[in-house]
Design brief:
Alpha-D-Glucose-1,6-Bisphosphate, Chain A, domain 4; alpha+beta; 6 strands; six-stranded antiparallel sheet; signal; Laminin subunit beta-1; coiled coil
Length: 232
């Protein structure tokens, strides 16, 4: 029982941990990729993992009809020929890097290659909002994935709690049944004790009566013996 209560407390603690929507600002800075150093759009993704961001990015790029490949040496994801109508009439090549931030999650750097140069608010003020929108939409997708995983974990914990409750209810039913059995046994034993006590009392009375009869019989025997002795 003590172990079950400790497990219950642990599960409730885990269920109470939750993530909300990522609402980090999109920033600009010059950063290096496999092509050189260019303007990149960056964003913090708190509470995320590199694996989770990578998986989400693969799904997200498919919506932009881009072909993604991973450059293991440069640790970057390259999506060729993505379609972003608000940014360019032509296809756009996108480079994305994930940076681990430990307990703070991850951060991403995204470069949009427009052919002549990379997207920046300075050179492409009218197109820059499309880049910001891309990162924010991606952050929403990551948030949705995180919440979906949280939901799965919560449902799993709920199932474990329900199973635990069933186990406790089963144990309680068994204990109730055991108590009823013990009570019936105790009642039967008490009845047996009363019967045995009655038998003992009856036996004691019979022993007393038999003792008196024996004494009387001894006197008879003695009298007969005396009469026999007197005629010899």
């Amino acid at each position: 029982m003590k172990t079950l209560m400790i497990t219950l407390f642990t599960l409730l603690t885990l269920v109470s941990t939750s993530w909300g929507q990522i609402d980090s600002p999109v920033k600009e800075e010059t950063k290096a990729n496999s092509k050189g150093s260019f303007n990149a759009l960056t964003m913090e993704l708190p509470g995320t993992t590199s694996k989770g961001v990578q998986k989400a990015w693969g799904k997200f790029i498919k919506k932009l009809k881009g072909k993604t490949k991973f450059d293991r040496k440069m640790n970057e994801y390259i999506a060729d020929d993505a379609t972003i109508k608000d940014m360019s009439d032509n296809t756009v090549d996108i480079i994305m890097k994930i940076e681990e931030r430990g307990q703070d999650g991850t951060a991403i750097s995204v470069w949009f290659n427009l052919g002549v140069s990379y997207l920046s608010s300075k050179d492409y003020a009218d197109r820059y909002p499309a880049g910001e929108k891309i990162l924010k939409e991606f952050a929403n997708l990551v948030s949705a994935d995180m919440i979906e995983e949280e939901l799965k974990d919560a449902e799993k914990k709920l199932k474990e709690l329900e199973d635990m409750l069933k186990k406790l209810e089963k144990e309680e039913a068994q204990r109730t049944k055991d108590i009823e059995t013990y009570r019936a046994t105790i009642k039967k034993m008490e009845e047996s004790i009363i019967t045995a006590e009655g038998d003992i009392k009856k036996s004691e009375e019979e022993q007393g009566n038999t003792t008196l009869t024996i004494e009387e019989q001894k006197k008879i025997v003695e009298d007969i013996q005396k009469r026999l002795d007197s005629v010899k």
